[in-house]
Amino acid sequence: MIRQWSYRRIVIFSAILVLQPQILRSKRLWDFRFVASPENVLIADIFTVFALVLVFEGVVYALFPSQMKTFMERMMEMPTSSLRNSGLVAAVAGVLLVWLIRG
Q1: In sequence order, what are the residues at sequence separation of 6 or more whose Cβ sits closer than 8 angstroms to the Cβ of residue 34?
Q2: Domain residue extents for the chain
Q3: Model's pTM, two decimal places?
């Protein structure tokens, strides 16, 4: 019951932020927004990337929960070296993509 409620809350909050950006600008919800100044653009980008990772992972778990369970079971059976190598390849690919996009 608690897990379903928290998933619903995350989905509703994400939809509100995506569909109504003026809520994000409202001072009534919070006062810790980052203003896009040269000093904190990097921090805002890092938080944006982290938020997007949470959104994409949440969507995958929300849409395909049983497939994710079987995927995790298969990952538990994989050797550690294979997991480490695939993680390293993904990290290098991500760095290269950021380098190509951001220059």
Answers
A1: 40, 43, 44, 47
A2: 2-102
A3: 0.52
